[in-house]
Write a structure and sequence with these properties.
Strand content: 15-25%
Strand order of the largest sheet: 2-1-4-3
Shape: elongated
Largest sheet: 4 strands, mixed
Order of helices and strands: EEHEEHEEHHHHH
Number of domains: 2
Structural class: alpha+beta
Radius of gyration: 20 Å
Helix content: 25-40%
Number of strands: 6
Length: 179
């Protein structure tokens, strides 16, 4: 069972993902309206309700933009736990972080210049650019789009069908993962 519900602002902008139990509580308290639902039905003593897939707040909530901060954890999620040179999967503790353009060349520590890298590839590359080391990146590093990063961090293989109409993601997953 999908255990997540997409929460939209009153303007239909995606805000965040909430556990389905929280979504049902919000529906029963009349704080939201159900926009889309899954096929499963939730039954209580005095109610029966289709499991909410997408809910919309009744009141507008002003929020800052949904930007993921640059961090080791978010970098690991963005790169799917894989070395960006050899493509092998690793546990977070086994990966290092590589500056594509080395700091000694003026490279910055940000989304567009840092990738996850296994120790073997990092030692091979050293303080050189990938071209100088005769290595090739699997994906060009870029800042993530928030919803694909969110679905990956939730452990979802793909964005749930009912969410797609509200995420404005035509091809965004491909753009996010650089495929």
């Amino acid at each position: 069972m999908t255990e997540w519900t997409l929460l939209l602002n009153s303007t239909f902008e995606p805000l965040k993902v909430v556990p389905w139990k929280k979504a049902v509580t919000m529906v029963l308290l009349k704080k939201v309206e159900v926009v889309e639902h899954y096929d499963r039905v939730i039954r209580g003593v005095s109610f029966s309700l289709p499991l909410p897939a997408v809910i919309r707040l009744n009141r507008f909530v002003a929020l800052r933009t949904n930007i993921f901060h640059f961090s080791r954890k978010n970098l690991y999620i963005r790169d799917r736990g894989r070395c960006q040179y050899c493509g092998r999967a690793f546990d977070p503790k086994e990966l290092t972080y590589d500056h594509v353009i080395p700091r000694s060349y003026g490279g910055q520590t940000d989304w567009t210049n840092v990738v996850t890298c296994c120790l073997e590839c990092n030692l091979k590359k050293g303080g050189r650019t990938p071209e100088e080391a005769g290595m090739k990146l699997i994906r060009k590093p870029r800042a993530p789009i928030w919803i694909p990063l969110l679905t990956v961090s939730l452990g979802l293989e793909e964005t749930p069908g009912p969410w797609k109409n509200y995420l404005y993601l035509e091809g965004a997953s491909d753009r996010f993962f650089g495929e």
